[in-house]
Write a sequence for this structure.
């Protein structure tokens, strides 16, 4: 399956298993979503289980909070992560706080899906990676899959989770893995191991990272598209890097990270999002706290620049393999 | 050079400021009984003028008149009067408790008691209210224990919200009272979502949304009307127009023309205005709108026209921005006084009975207060454990919070 098919399949499995699961968002119903992630669901489950919403992100999330407090399990889509900002009040002030402020009287089992990330000539408002907005909010869980297998398992886990989950989908990975070599042909998911997706129900637990490449020399912390960039950089540099795909940013699998960094003594953090105040800063401080006496060199971040996401300068902005390779050499003091 | 005059920004001003003579002469009050009671399935376009009139039942003589009269028996009205008295005395005691340092904050309902108390009586068990911080009458009239409310206000050892919430931000699912948020307008949209969920589930329960005049300017107000209209959600959307948003008069939110109810017209939602100080009118309108929702006719927008007699909160001094005499000049009077006069006029109540009821209720409120204060107050201790501060962020405490709790010494 592609990641799109895996996400659609996760919806299908969840809706078949639990009638409390309802799906809505802009263009999500009849049309099946601008990325086809909900195609066929309205036909199969009816208009009251999967439907189109007005163009109002705050309305979509606000309605979902009300539905979740009623007892449904809404799975809503924000068409692009770049457009989530009108809903931030409903997400941060309401969804995230409902259990806490009502002492469990009301809860908010809700999933907010949103295509994220760049590398597609999306310009300023179709490329952003706003994960740090969400990881800073207590009460939310923030998830980003990097492959179809995880996308299905993590989405099913998110739908079942009793708390609100922000589910960020790297749209660059929807149809195949992408390692940042934009001048090379795209390999489809059907030619990748992680494109093999079980048709049945399964979950990939939230809060657990995955080691994508074993290595001894340096630990690379990545998620989403940057997992493949990191893998490619490791191969091309000849540096024996261990690549960890975080999968869930919050709660963070700090144990897997710590074990790896203590082994390698070095840590590189890569993400597409802008640098200052990005999630990399949190990773950096946690690794520093947990692994200080094991570190053999300063922790380095390779990220998007602190600028809005440009259009023409796509490949100078996107943190591709060349920048990651340079950072790996710097870490190894080569 | 342009020949037109320089442009000028209009910034609306209230009719009167401190030191001015209050003047409500341009406030048109329709006669009681004058507004029709439409059928439940009325076409919103057929009642457009209702958004510019005011549904009133009690006339100046204390008679209940017109097509909206007769929804409640005398016994029920006496109960309603007692609810409003309870809320007023509760407010008075809690404002004092705040002044005495027993809690940090309080918000009173002075002059608006009829709105939430009367509305609650039109709802059924299982319906869900999405209130603001000024609808505690929904709890009082719904039989929620005052001691629990006070435990929350005092943030004490028995606070149902474990000391996590600012005073008066109650929550009771069992009593159909959604958790109050400090963020204005958010619950208006959520009420529509809850109502949609009820419809999706083939349920028969309805939701009510609540918002103040000032907060109608929030984006959530607009979104709620769009969604309620699009999905024909079984929700009653209430705007409580008490003329003031802290120091800002309602003209700043309303734009100087029309009414808040008229906002419903653009969304195809039946919109009515009601005398918010007329217990009978509020109840009748609430009943009509909730019956509409329950029958599947969709949302209704109600503007409750009232006046915020007290300060915005215990942290506010209204004499800094409006005339002290303004509240006395408010032409729709006092909701308790008006219902009292009606019941006396009907021969089922008397000044003596009223005084006796007041004394009895005061004793009940004081007894509840003593009981609550025995559980602790913010000023004098017996607070919830700091350990509890870390609970309930998620259903299961994640490792980083366990670690922080241990760091905090718990």
């Amino acid at each position: 399956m592609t990641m799109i098919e895996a996400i659609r399949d996760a919806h299908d499995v969840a809706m078949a298993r639990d009638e409390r699961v309802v799906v809505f968002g802009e263009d999500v119903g009849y049309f099946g979503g601008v990325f086809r992630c909900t195609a066929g669901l309205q036909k199969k489950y009816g208009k009251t289980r999967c439907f189109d919403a007005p163009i109002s992100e705050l309305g979509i999330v606000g309605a979902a909070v009300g539905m979740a407090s009623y007892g449904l399990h809404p799975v809503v889509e924000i068409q692009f992560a770049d457009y989530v900002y009108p809903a931030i009040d409903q997400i941060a002030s309401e969804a995230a706080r409902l259990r806490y402020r009502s002492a469990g009287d009301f809860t908010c089992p809700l999933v907010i899906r949103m295509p994220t990330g760049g590398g597609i000539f999306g310009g300023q408002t179709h490329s952003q990676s706003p994960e740090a907005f969400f990881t800073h909010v207590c009460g939310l869980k923030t998830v980003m899959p990097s492959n179809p297998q995880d996308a299905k398992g993590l989405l099913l886990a998110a739908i079942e989770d009793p708390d609100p989950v922000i589910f960020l989908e790297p749209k660059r990975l929807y149809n195949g893995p992408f390692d940042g070599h934009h001048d090379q042909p795209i390999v489809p998911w059907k030619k990748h191991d992680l494109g093999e997706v079980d048709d049945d129900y399964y979950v990939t637990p939230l809060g657990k990272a995955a080691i994508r490449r074993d290595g001894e020399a340096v630990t690379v912390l990545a998620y989403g598209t940057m997992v493949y960039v990191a893998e490619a950089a490791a191969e091309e540099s000849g540096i024996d890097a261990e690549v960890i795909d975080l999968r869930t940013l919050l709660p963070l699998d700090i144990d897997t990270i710590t074990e790896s960094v203590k082994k390698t003594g070095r840590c590189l953090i890569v993400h597409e999002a802008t640098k200052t105040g990005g999630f990399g800063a949190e990773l950096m401080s946690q690794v520093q706290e947990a692994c200080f006496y094991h570190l053999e060199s300063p922790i380095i971040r390779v990220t998007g620049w602190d600028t809005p996401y440009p259009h023409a300068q796509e490949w100078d902005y996107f943190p591709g393999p060349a920048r990651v390779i340079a950072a790996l050499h710097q870490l190894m003091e080569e | 050079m342009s020949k037109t005059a320089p442009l000028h920004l209009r910034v609306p001003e209230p009719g009167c400021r401190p030191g001015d003579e209050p003047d409500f002469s341009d406030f048109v009050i329709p006669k009681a009984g004058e507004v029709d009671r439409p059928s439940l399935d009325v076409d919103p376009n057929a009642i457009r003028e209702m958004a510019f009139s005011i549904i009133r039942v009690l006339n100046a003589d204390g008679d209940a008149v017109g097509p909206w009269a007769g929804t409640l028996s005398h016994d029920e009205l006496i109960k309603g009067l007692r609810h409003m008295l309870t809320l007023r005395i509760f407010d008075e005691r809690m404002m004092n408790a705040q002044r005495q340092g027993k809690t940090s904050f309080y918000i009173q309902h002075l002059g608006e008691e009829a709105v939430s108390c009367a509305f609650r009586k039109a709802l059924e068990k299982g319906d869900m209210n999405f209130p603001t911080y000024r609808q505690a009458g929904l709890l009082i009239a719904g039989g929620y224990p005052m001691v629990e409310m006070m435990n929350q206000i005092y943030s004490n050892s028995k606070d149902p919200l474990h000391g996590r919430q600012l005073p008066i931000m109650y929550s009771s699912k069992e009593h159909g009272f959604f958790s109050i948020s400090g963020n204005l307008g958010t619950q208006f949209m959520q009420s529509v979502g809850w109502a949609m969920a009820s419809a999706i589930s083939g349920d028969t329960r309805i939701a009510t949304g609540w918002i103040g005049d000032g907060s109608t300017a929030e984006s959530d107000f607009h979104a709620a009307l769009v969604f309620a209209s699009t999905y024909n959600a079984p929700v009653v959307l209430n705007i409580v127009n008490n003329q003031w948003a802290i120091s800002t008069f309602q003209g700043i939110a309303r734009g100087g023309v029309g009414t808040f109810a008229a906002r419903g017209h653009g969304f195809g939602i039946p919109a009515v205005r009601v005398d918010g100080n007329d217990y009978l009118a509020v109840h009748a309108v609430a009943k009509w709108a909730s019956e509409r929702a329950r029958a599947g006719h969709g949302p209704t927008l109600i503007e409750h026209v009232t006046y915020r007699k007290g300060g915005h909160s215990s942290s506010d001094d209204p004499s800094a921005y409006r005339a002290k005499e303004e509240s006395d000049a408010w032409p729709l009077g006092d909701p308790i006084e008006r219902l009292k006069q009606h019941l006396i006029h009907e021969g089922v109540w008397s000044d003596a009975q009223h005084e006796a009821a007041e004394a009895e209720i005061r004793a009940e409120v004081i007894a509840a207060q003593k009981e609550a204060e025995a559980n602790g107050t913010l000023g004098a201790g017996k607070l919830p454990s700091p350990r509890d501060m870390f609970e309930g962020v998620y259903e299961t405490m994640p490792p980083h919070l366990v670690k922080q709790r241990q760091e905090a010494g718990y």
In short: The CA atoms of residues 300 and 330 of chain A lie 9 Å apart. The first helix of chain A runs from residue 3 to 17. The two ends of chain A are 41 Å apart (CA to CA).
